[in-house]
Amino acid sequence: MEPSNVPVAQGPWPASTLLGRLDGRIVAELVAAGRRRTVLAGEVLVRQGGQERTLLLLLSGAAKVFATTDSGHQALLAVRVGGDCVGEMGALDGAPRSATVTACGPLELVVLTQATLSTQMDRHPRLSLEFGRTIADRLRWANRRRLEFGGYPVKVRLARLLTELGLEHGHCGPGGIRLPFRLTQPELAALTGAAETTVHKALRELRLEGLVETGYGTTVLCDPGRLSALAEEA
Questions:
Q1: Is the pTM of this model over 0.70?
Q2: Which listed residue, of 101, 107, 122, 191, carries a Cα 20 to 30 Å from 151's Cα?
């Protein structure tokens, strides 16, 4: 989680994203080969159980990835921002969608068919490499979350999650690092594998210690250094 370990972005997107790892020529070809769309807040981009095999490249904005269990419980799995791709598993293997993705706000995206994606990966070995790295990164992220569920106190889990989201997606400003999307307490509970009441208590402690500020639609990491230190405490 050290900032020095974060790669340098190749374009206007975060270096942790697929588009941020590709040079402008490849990105331009991908955008030209796909269908560009503008969507509004709350619009469903991918629906769990759907059969479509497209890949979506987010050019701007943010989206949330949810999964619903057989009992009807809905859990937030991840957040994706401009530069990220969504729907990569279905685009690769053609299996039904494993999650639902909704827009957090207005966003721009490009839709690539499975055939177009295959053609572009054949044309650009670098795209294939970075696509594989993206999937590997997401598997590692999910594995870290599972390990943390039983290995760390909820306050430390929350600090680790916020630090990681801030490094990957945050915008630096005079008040600290601002996350470009809203995270509710139930969503933070899902991402940390904790009860909502426990997350509420941990978040209140972080606010009282001056590490974070939360408001309607905003999360600011006020003291990223101290928050990172708490995240590494365990």
A1: yes
A2: 101
